[in-house]
Write a structure and sequence with these properties.
The complex is a heterotetramer of chains A (416), B (974), C (215) and D (88).
Chain A (H helix, E strand, L loop, with lengths): L4 H9 L17 E7 L3 H14 L4 E4 L15 E2 L6 H15 L1 H5 L10 E5 L2 H16 L5 E4 H7 L14 E5 L3 E2 L2 H14 L3 E3 L4 E7 L2 E7 L2 E10 L5 H8 L6 E12 L7 E4 L4 E5 L4 E12 L7 H14 L7 E12 L6 E4 L5 E5 L9 H14 L13 H4 L16
Parallel strand pairs in A: 1-2, 1-11, 2-8, 4-13, 11-18
Antiparallel strand pairs in A: 3-7, 4-6, 5-6, 9-10, 10-11, 12-15, 12-16, 13-14, 14-15, 17-18
Chain B lengths: L18 E5 L2 E5 L5 H7 L6 E2 L6 E2 L12 E4 L6 E5 L9 E5 L36 H13 L14 E13 L3 H12 L4 E4 L16 H12 L4 E4 L2 E7 L3 E7 L14 E13 L3 E3 L12 E3 H9 L8 E6 L5 H9 L3 E7 L5 H8 L4 E3 L1 E8 L3 E8 L7 E4 L2 E5 L2 E3 L2 H5 L4 E4 L4 E4 L6 E3 L9 H12 L28 E3 L4 E2 H9 L5 H8 L12 H12 L18 E2 H5 L16 H6 L3 E5 L2 E6 L8 H14 L2 E4 L4 E6 L3 H8 L11 E8 L5 E11 L2 E6 L4 H14 L7 E4 L4 E7 L3 H5 L3 E2 L13 E7 L5 E7 L8 E7 L3 H12 L5 E2 L2 H11 L31 H4 L2 H4 L5 E7 L11 E3 L8 E8 L6 E7 L10 E5 L4 E8 L14
Parallel strand pairs in B: 1-7, 8-9, 8-13, 9-10, 13-26, 15-22, 16-17, 16-22, 17-18, 32-43
Antiparallel strand pairs in B: 1-2, 3-4, 5-6, 5-7, 11-12, 12-13, 14-23, 19-20, 20-21, 24-25, 27-28, 30-31, 32-38, 33-36, 33-37, 34-35, 35-36, 38-42, 39-40, 40-41, 41-42, 44-47, 44-49, 45-46, 45-48, 46-47, 48-49
Chain C lengths: L16 E3 L7 E5 L3 E7 L4 H10 L11 E3 L4 E6 L2 E6 L5 H9 L3 E5 L4 E7 L3 H6 L16 E3 L7 E7 L3 E7 L3 H12 L4 E3 L21
Parallel strand pairs in C: 2-12
Antiparallel strand pairs in C: 1-12, 2-8, 3-6, 3-7, 4-5, 5-6, 8-11, 9-10, 10-11
Classes of the chains: A alpha/beta (416), B alpha+beta (974), C alpha+beta (215), D mainly beta (88).
Bound molecules: flavin-adenine dinucleotide, nicotinamide-adenine-dinucleotide, flavin mononucleotide and zinc ion.
Chain lengths: 416, 974, 215, 88
């Protein structure tokens, strides 16, 4: 059923009783050409692009709970491609390009809102790093602007330029960056994949991965054994567990990251703003809630909740950046399981097991990668080798020393 | 008449005092003890707000924090606060409140026209539209949606108030000061425990405040608690979150009941409570019933109506009807009747009950087995439509201006659930109650489904250890015959705040969003400021019916902090403004201040960046002047911020060989050496000097920013990897002030001051270290430690002295150097000098570069293990094609270099590297820079561009040695 | 601190007078001039270190979480096999201990590296509760007890010196100014007195925070 | 908020500590082991043996047995201690 303004009207007059499920809730078949594990944005996007780009439609997405309730449903929705290293910004730029046409492509309004992402800096050193990044982007044809103080003030008057401790020196702005409605991304991909024949199987937990002669053959799930020609993992914070089932190790730690939303208020923050003197970022949802977050709690966790010290840091940084936030009220907090890699960049590609591919290691930033990751992962599955866009994101780059460390933080951020 | 709905007597308001306040500009009066809501009702104000999406008229629905409708903007200007719940705002004199989400006025809200689009604005409609043309989303649709959404208007100016934090430990934390909580606190207190009792309301009592007969017990209990020294009573304190290890967060409102906080009083206080045991006595929330028009002002929870009457002395209407499915709710209508309200009828979903009989006995007409299927009126209620359940018969209009509803109660299990306690379905209440706790915690009273004041108090007392006087009173029967929804024409709301109707829930289910978490996100059910406290379960029940499963199998969305919304500033506390991060100052800070230094922050430290001179036109004038003085004569720089670690022990030398990439064990006592540390992954970590004071004692210096990380790194390895080593580590960063005296005249400057040490080149050569005494000639004899080390490339000494002597030493050196023109220089000139010299610093040691990248490979030990050695040999890091350190100069000397530029072939856009640091030179003309370049110095002679597309610039540059100045390193040795 | 003026970091920071809330009994906030030496037992040096301390007029080295007062110096436990030795000003402590300990211990002068604040009065605990995460309640803490724990986020050693109660708060010198501000801000809602008994009224001096002055 | 009972200092908030990750790996003697030492870290959903450095207190590096889903701390020891995960 295609969505359109006309259909909305006719349905309204029919009491909205004619709408059909956005995707079929199917039971698993005994065998598929490709099985994707993980019904988050990445898994659903992989399935969608497998069908759309490669004509592979005998595909199942297995989700242990309900789709989109993992990190896809609990992130701060920032999309951007303002990365320093070419491997990263070229990949994320491709993802951003896919975002730009996504809604028409999916026939689903994921509310992609290119309202701009502004990263503030507060020191010469940080300005130089921002310039290095912005120039790298511009050389590769990606939009970036360096704002001075006056331009920052104009772009977002709420920012306290003269923060008594860390005055703002300027910011790096990517106007094409912004936000997207997180849940709608999962739902839109699910619906579009379903329309191309993909089976979306919920409440189906993968509990074992069977291999034969180093090749993946089947999955043991809470809903029975499912044979699979190829298997793609897209399970974010659970990547270590799934890799363990297949018998290989991934250099990933699962950490908790909290996020927050304030009570809804009239439009106040019109772009995505990040603080440079503390870990803090904020935007405002279309509903009016300020969606914000900061750094990791700093220890391994599989619980989707965090603790007060991280909460305190986030709130203090928020008031430091925008003193007017002080009287607003925080409504809700939650946590997500971050798949942290030692260099902060993802892993998309082959694994030591033949026929088994993965996309993971998203750290803080995999939501924006959703279309790009799905697209590259689908390519890798279909062709049996990575696309040039994800060729650098290998699992063995740590053994090779070909690190993609954007921030220079070194293995595992907590070690700093 | 003022306050026409106020009763003559009774309740917890002080009628003797009058408080003036304003609502939407209208002057009104209330009394101490009122909430804004009770005062508005006393004045007959019933329309108080507009709903979120459809802008429907809304009235006061509850009498507590669960309020979905009655939200106001409170105060004005920088203190304006949107979305405050009128039902929880303590009235104060001069209070200013305004309704929100309406234009131009509450009664005539143009936005209510969107209501006409009602059927189109079904749940999730926006996912299906607004996609054409693509560019219209940001430009047209989204701005309109955003402007229409959001409730109140936030302040945009900095908050004038301040906040503070408090840490506390207790044996027993009691949350909630109703009968259960008061009894628990008293019993635990009587047993001698350290008790905290937090009550979000400004009065203790909870349900007791509605029971005049229990007032004596309440007063006596409070008096007893007040005498217990280990019991802390915290009214106006909301426990907002239950975290791991029995740690809870709470916010106390110290001044929200005042127009503004008195001097020195924080507005709110954020408590971190570490509790041995937690007693959750958080009571229960009455829930709504979904029926068409259930949002019309005048529809109110039955318990709320009772609260307005009994606690606040306000008649919430003139003609009241009750619609309920349980007996407990009847108390409200009986009390209203007794207070003189007409009660034209009671509508009960059940065919029969004790309550129904009691009502009939009071002469009230009862529609048993009936339901309310609609409401009449405009912006306020004029009547309700009643019909028999299941029947097809016509409905009857009952005229009334107040409809009390009660769908039963939901125990307030928010905190219990956050603590990990599973929830179980209780058939009698048709609600979730806490199961077996996971942490040291217990729910009591209504929060555990134990209703009735006597029973709740007894339950609380048991949890506290018992042995206290208890109230007695009638048992309360809260058994419900579930009725969740009455279907009919019109909108039946399950979430009043977010305008979610029962139809929306069904639509979600129809479209495949039938899981509770999907339905929540698809419809925004229970996602408003009230988080669905009154309607959340009702929505779940509607969903269950649509799915054809029992309610309990649908579950509830996850309970999360914050139990009720929490002020942002309260959590930020004192960490605002200057105190956002603590400042570190050197002992010379005040001297720098007096000499007009401009400061720069580095790892919490404030360091002088430069000292603007009277005749300096801009920064560069100062920086070049300072640097020139060093190259030509002598300058002095405060380098106290460098990290300093004292390393002692028989194995100290061995240890340092393991943690530095270069060899230090061969360093003789009395000498210093440059040291480079790697991370275990082979990337450069930090650098500094290592001085050997005695065979088993070393002094390390670290960069300012990394001092703490280096110490932790050393401790970690010492304790976990090599515990057998005899090494003791102590940070002496603060003990020693340090100043760099640099320039060709530095020896002449220092020599006359130094006693006990011959500074001649032979006696005290480059890289020598020695202790001495500095005599300032004015009676100050200061111990000093001299290091002949240089960052500037000039003859230089680092003079360290115990920090208390810093200013005396500094001044003595300035006096002694005056004849040579000595001046202080800051970090800017320091940077200039080190770049000319080709020394790497933070911009080069950025966590991405290896020793080889930095041109320091030759330093690294060829033999033996050290941190980072193994992994630095990985092919990717050992790759000779990696960008390597080079010097850069603009071909046209007047061109400017910028850090952050990329190096490209002329006309190209492939980055071959980047510029990390730049400066204008003093030994060299024009700008110079350090950078990393693929091919490194091999590209010397190849023309390159430094591209800075952010500014549209590309500067022709030449590649040169990074050691621009004195590459033979002669000057430092002279 | 000997030789020059005490705590150059604090010049002008704590001005005598009474500040903050005017009602009720204020806490008293000040600094203590003393010598401080960090001693860390080296391999097999424990007994020799103990003997050296005792010989120098020090106490039996206290166990974790405790301080002990000797004839001429106090010892505060601060880390495994590590203590801060505290004596009056101008005692020449570091040299004496280094000589006495020899290779038994690393002896590190910290007189200039630390600043000692004093906080006294009935409400001293309430002030500390605003900054300190550990339990200082009399049932859990008391005279002679030491907690090594951050004050807000600044590393500190908190030593209860008296039952009144009174506390010594030892922090790195470079943070002294920041800590003075934190203590003042924490004490402002209660009211605090700096220096003797003279009343400074409600005006603010120096750059104490938490008074009227918005910093 | 995770509470870690430091054997020296007593129970303290997580905020006083610096987390240092997996405590089951040991710095190898052989070059070949370094990749695994740095990168192959246990990441279980369950009991996790991990380093917490008491940087805000006594500066001891502690070995802590903690559950990564419940955050319960079962044992705290010194580097030489070998706490065993509960069998359940
Ligand atoms: C608080 C927070 C804020 C963030 N902010 C941003 C941001 O602003 N911008 C940004 O770009 N990124 C952000 N991220 C990161 C981003 O959310 C994630 O990287 C991204 O959503 C990962 O998507 P995914 O599809 O891989 O994972 P998920 O959405 O987590 O999907 C993985 C799915 O796998 C399923 N699964 C796991 N194990 C099994 C199994 N055994 N069998 C079957 N199914 C299984 C899970 O149930 C889950 O649904 C944030 C993350 C968090 C937690
Ligand atoms: N007649 C009524 O409408 C009515 C209303 C409430 C209670 N009661 C009676 O009281 C009995 C229950 O007594 P009880 O003590 O269990 O409940 P209670 O409702 O009397 O008391 C609970 C108290 O906890 C407070 N509270 C809830 N969450 C809090 C939080 N997060 N932080 C701080 N405070 C919080 C509430 O403000 C309330 O005062 C009920 O069974 C009923 O008989 C009657
Ligand atoms: C971008 C974004 C906006 C959100 N806005 C709201 C909101 O307005 N109201 C609300 O109750 N929750 C909001 N949430 C939080 C969700 O209710 C939920 O807590 C979160 O998705 C995590 O799921 P969980 O709490 O069910 O584990 C928002 C979440 C995200 C990611
Ligand atoms: Zn400790």
């Amino acid at each position: 059923m295609r969505y359109s303004g006309l259909r909305l009207l006719t349905q309204a007059f029919a009491g909205n009783t004619g709408w059909k499920p956005a995707w079929r809730d199917t039971a698993p078949k005994s065998s598929y050409d490709v099985v994707i594990v993980g019904g988050g944005g990445h898994g659903l996007a992989t399935a969608y692009y497998l069908a759309r780009e490669h004509g592979i439609t005998n595909v199942a997405v297995l989700e242990r709970g309900r789709i989109g309730l993992g990190n896809t449903g609990r992130n701060t929705t920032i999309i951007r491609s303002n990365y320093l290293l070419p491997e990263n910004h070229n990949f994320y730029e491709w993802s951003l390009k896919l975002w730009e046409g996504l809604e028409q492509d999916l026939n689903y309004n994921a509310m992609v809102s290119q309202r701009g992402v502004l990263n503030l800096f507060h020191s010469d050193a940080a300005r130089h790093a921002a310039a290095r990044r912005g120039n790298a982007m511009r050389l590769d044809g990606i939009d970036a602007e360096l704002l001075d103080r006056a331009q920052v003030a104009e772009f977002c008057p709420l920012i306290d330029l003269d923060n008594a401790r860390f005055p703002v020196m300027g910011g790096l702005l990517q106007r094409r960056g912004g936000t997207a409605r997180h849940d709608a991304v999962a739902w839109g991909f699910a619906r579009a994949a379903d329309r191309r024949g993909v089976d979306i199987i919920q409440e189906c937990e993968v509990q074992g991965i069977e291999t034969e002669g180093g090749r993946v053959t089947a999955l043991r799930t809470s809903r029975g054994r499912i044979r699979a020609g190829r298997v793609g993992l897209a399970v974010a914070g659970s990547t270590s567990l799934l890799a363990g089932m297949a018998g290989f190790e991934v250099p990933i730690e699962s950490h908790v990251l909290q996020a927050f939303v304030s009570e809804a208020v009239k439009p106040l923050v019109h772009a995505v703003i990040t603080f440079g003197a503390g870990h803090f970022y904020i935007s405002q949802s279309d509903k009016g809630g300020l969606v914000f977050g900061g750094g990791l709690d700093g220890w391994n966790s599989y619980a989707q909740r965090g603790n007060l010290p991280a909460v305190e840091h986030v709130f203090a940084a928020g008031v430091a950046m925008m003193p007017a936030l002080s009287r607003l009220r925080a409504l809700r907090s939650w946590g997500g399981m971050m798949d942290m890699t030692p260099d902060g960049s993802p892993i998309i590609g082959l694994t030591p097991i033949q026929g088994l591919t993965m996309t993971g290691g998203w750290c803080y930033g995999g939501f924006k990668a959703t279309p790009g990751s799905g697209w590259c992962h689908a390519w890798t599955i279909a062709k049996g080798e990575p696309h040039p866009l994800n060729a650098a994101f290998t699992l063995d780059r740590f053994r090779q020393g070909r690190l993609l460390d954007e921030r220079g933080a070194g293995p595992f951020a907590w070690a700093q | 008449m003022s306050q026409p709905f106020r009763t003559a007597a009774g309740g917890h308001v002080d009628r003797a005092a009058t408080l003036e306040f304003r609502f939407d500009g209208r002057a009104l009066q209330g009394h101490p003890g009122d909430t804004l809501a009770s005062a508005l009702l006393a004045n007959g104000v019933r329309l108080v707000g507009r709903s979120f999406k459809l802008h429907r008229p809304r009235g006061i629905f509850s009498a507590g924090v669960e309020e979905p409708n009655a939200l106001a903007e409170l105060r004005t200007g920088a203190r304006r606060e949107p979305n405050t719940r009128m039902t929880a705002i303590e009235l104060h004199a001069g209070l200013e409140a305004a309704s929100q989400n309406r234009f131009p006025s509450l009664r005539w809200d143009l936005m209510s026209l969107v209501g006409l689009l009602g059927p189109v604005l079904s749940a999730g409609f926006y996912y299906k539209t607004f996609m054409w043309p693509a560019s219209f989303w940001e430009r047209v649709y989204e701005p309109r949606i955003r402007a229409a959404a959001g409730l109140g208007r936030p302040a945009t100016a900095p908050d004038p108030d301040h906040y503070e934090a408090m840490h506390v430990h207790c044996d027993v934390l009691v949350v909630g000061g109703g009968p259960a909580g008061l009894a628990a606190a008293r019993a635990a207190g009587a047993a001698g425990a350290r008790v905290m009792l937090c009550e979000q309301d400004f009065l203790f009592g909870g349900g007791l405040l509605l029971e005049p007969a229990q007032e004596a017990w309440r007063a006596e209990t409070l008096a007893a608690l007040a005498t217990m020294p280990e019991v802390t009573l915290l009214p106006r304190t909301t426990v907002f979150g239950y975290y791991d290890a029995n740690v809870l967060g709470a916010v106390e409102r110290l001044a929200d009941h005042l127009a503004e906080p008195p001097p020195h009083t924080p507005r709110q206080r954020y408590w971190t409570i570490r509790a041995g045991r937690v007693v959750l006595a958080t009571g229960a929330h009455e829930r709504l019933i979904a029926f068409p028009g259930n949002d019309r002002p005048g529809v109110m929870l039955a318990g709320a109506a009772l609260a307005y009457l009994r606690r606040f002395g306000v008649r919430p209407g003139r003609r009241a009807v009750l619609f309920a499915n349980n007996d407990a709710a009847y108390e409200a209508v009986f009390a209203l009747q007794a207070a003189g309200l007409a009660v034209p009828g009671v509508v009960d979903a059940r065919p029969d009950s004790a309550g129904i009989a009691a009502a009939r006995a009071r002469g009230i007409a009862v529609w048993a087995g009936a339901e309310v299927c609609g409401t009449a009126g405009g912006a306020t209620l004029r009547g309700v439509r009643v019909r028999h359940r299941g029947g097809t018969g016509t409905d009857t209009l009952l005229a009334c201006d107040l409809l009390c509803i009660s769908g039963g109660i939901n125990p307030a299990v928010h905190l219990a659930s956050q603590s990990g306690t599973p929830l179980h379905w209780n058939e009698r209440l048709a609600a979730h109650v806490p199961g077996a706790p996971v942490q040291a915690q217990l729910s009591v009273g209504a929060a555990a489904g134990v209703t009735g004041i006597a029973a709740a108090a007894a339950d609380g007392a048991r949890a506290g250890g018992g042995g206290i006087p208890l109230p007695d009173g009638p048992a309360q029967d809260a058994t419900v015959a579930p009725i969740w929804e009455v279907r009919g024409r019109g909108k039946a709301f399950v979430d009043l705040q977010d305008d979610v109707t029962a139809d929306d829930i069904r639509l979600a289910h129809r479209e495949g969003f039938g899981h509770i978490e999907h339905a929540k996100r698809y419809t925004t059910h229970a996602m408003g400021t009230d988080q669905g406290k009154t309607g959340g379960l009702v929505g779940a029940a509607v969903l269950a019916a649509a799915r054809g499963v029992p309610v309990e199998s649908v579950g509830l969305p996850t309970f999360r902090p914050f139990a009720t919304p929490v002020t942002w500033g309260a959590i930020a506390g004192h960490h605002v403004g200057r105190a956002y991060a603590p400042e570190r100052r050197t002992p010379l800070h005040d001297w720098h201040l007096r000499h007009a230094a401009e400061f720069v922050e580095a790892g919490h430290w404030l360091r002088p960046a430069y000292y603007p001179g009277a005749s300096d036109g801009d920064v560069w004038d100062s920086v070049l002047r300072e640097a020139r003085a060093v190259r030509r004569d002598v300058g002095i720089c405060d380098v106290s911020t460098l990290g300093k670690i004292d390393v002692q022990g028989a194995d100290a030398a061995d240890f340092l060989d393991r943690v530095y990439a270069n060899t230090l064990s061969t360093l003789p006592p009395g000498r210093a050496r440059y040291g480079l540390m790697l991370r275990e992954d082979g990337i450069a970590f930090d650098d500094g000097t290592v001085a050997r004071l005695t065979p088993d004692r070393f002094l390390l210096s670290t960069t300012t920013a990394n001092a703490a990380a280096v110490l932790a790194h050393l401790e970690f390895h010492l304790q976990t990897a090599w515990p057998e080593l005899d090494v003791a580590l102590a940070s002496v960063t603060d003990q020693w002030a340090a100043m760099s005296v640099a320039g060709p005249r530095s020896r002449e400057t220092l020599a006359p001051l130094i006693e006990g040490l011959d500074l001649s080149n032979d006696a005290f050569p480059f890289m020598a270290v020695a202790d001495a005494v500095l005599n300032d000639g004015r009676g100050e004899i200061c111990p000093v430690r001299l290091f002949r080390i240089s960052f500037s490339g000039e003859l230089a000494y680092e003079v360290a002295t115990p920090a208390g002597h810093a200013e005396a030493v500094w001044k003595a050196i300035l006096r002694a150097g005056a004849e040579f023109g000595i001046i202080p220089y800051g970090t800017e000139a320091l940077g200039l000098l080190r770049i000319e010299k080709g020394h790497v610093a933070g911009a080069e040691l950025n966590g991405q570069t290896t020793a080889a990248d930095l041109g320091l490979a030759r330093l690294c030990k060829k033999r033996g293990d050290y941190i980072g050695r193994a992994l630095a040999q990985r092919p990717g890091l050992a790759d000779p094609a990696r960008p390597a350190l080079v010097g850069l100069r603009p071909l046209h000397r007047s061109d400017r270099l910028r850090a952050g530029a990329h190096l490209v072939l002329p006309g190209g856009s492939d980055s071959l590297g980047w510029i990390s640091s730049v400066t204008r030179g003093v030994a060299l003309e024009g700008w110079i820079g350090l950078g990393f370049l693929r091919g490194g110095l091999g590209r010397a002679g190849t023309p390159l561009h430094a591209a800075f597309p952010l500014l549209g610039e590309a500067v022709e540059v030449e590649v040169v040695s990074p050691h621009f100045f004195d590459p033979e390193n002669q000057r430092v040795r002279d | 601190m000997s030789a020059t003026e005490p705590h150059p970091w604090l010049a002008g920071a704590l001005v005598p007078g009474r500040f903050g809330a005017a009602a009720g009994e204020p806490v008293r906030l000040g600094t203590r001039a003393c010598e401080l030496v960090q001693v860390l037992a080296r391999r097999d040096g424990d007994a020799a270190l103990q003997a050296a301390i005792r010989a120098a007029g020090g106490p039996d080295l206290p166990p974790p979480g405790h301080a002990a007062q000797g004839e001429r110096m106090a010892a505060l436990w601060t880390q495994p096999r590590g203590w801060l030795i505290q004596a009056g000003p101008d005692a020449g402590l570091a040299r004496r201990l280094a000589d006495a300990c020899g290779p038994a211990a690393a002896v590190v002068e910290q007189t200039h590296g630390r600043c000692v604040f004093t906080l006294e009065g009935a409400h001293a605990r309430a002030v500390l509760a605003r900054l300190c995460r550990v339990d200082l309640h009399p049932r859990a803490f008391g005279p002679g007890r030491v907690a090594v724990t951050p004050l807000s986020e600044i590393a500190a050693v908190i030593h209860q010196t008296g039952a009144a109660p009174g506390f010594d708060i030892i922090v790195a010198s470079s943070y002294a100014r920041a800590v003075a501000g934190m203590l003042a801000a924490a004490a402002a809602p209660i009211g605090y007195q700096v220096g003797g008994d003279q009343m400074g009224g409600d005006q603010m001096g120096g750059d104490q925070m938490g008074g009227d002055r918005v910093d | 908020m995770i509470q870690i009972a430091c054997p020296y200092c007593g129970p303290r908030d997580e905020a006083e500590f610096a987390y240092r990750g997996d405590a089951t790996v040991h710095r190898p003697a052989e070059e070949a082991g370094f990749h695994d030492y740095v990168y192959a870290r246990a990441n279980p959903r369950g009991w996790h043996l991990e380093w917490w450095h008491h940087t805000g207190g006594c500066r001891a590096v502690l070995k802590v047995l903690r559950h990564t889903a419940t955050h319960e701390v079962r044992a705290v020891g010194l580097p030489a201690d070998r706490p065993e995960p509960p069998s359940a």
